Amino acid sequence: MSRPPFPPFTLETARQKVRAAEDAWNTCDPDRVAQAYTEDTVWRNRDEFLTGRAEVRAFLARKWDRERDYALRKELWAFTDDRIAVRFQYEWQDAEGRTWRSYGNENWEFAPDGLMRRREASINDVPIAPEERWILGPRDDGDATPLPLR
Predict the structure, then answer these.
(1) CB contact at 8 A, 121 and 46
(2) CA 92, CA 72: separation in Å to the nearest integer?
(3) In whole angstroms, what is the distance from residue 108 CA to residue 52 CA?
(4) Is the pTM of this model over 0.90?
(5) What are the pLDDT digits (tens) for 8-32?
């Protein structure tokens, strides 16, 4: 399996990779999203350390079971030949109906086939009022609105 665009990245292909990741994560489908990672992918997500696509898939299933009404925006921060850095914001509700905005940064490293072999994510959660939500679902095609500082 492969996942274009492939390294080495250009500004345009790095942006495409970021948007493809955003679109996939907004499906909240662990099986679909996990296919973008190598079989031996290595992750750090907050305080969790994962190895392998199967662990990533299980993690994503737990995540989207807990983070309801999930909606995400990612933005390219920087890139090199086979690495991309992004900043992101996503909003969600917990089981008690509280609304959250999560802020973070990710560093990605890709294999030559375009699959992600390493992901390191630092994330902070902030409670918000439901009326403060601004991410209400996937972006419309062509929407490249930058992330606000909120």
Answers:
(1) yes
(2) 9
(3) 15
(4) yes
(5) 999 999 999 999 999 999 999 999 9
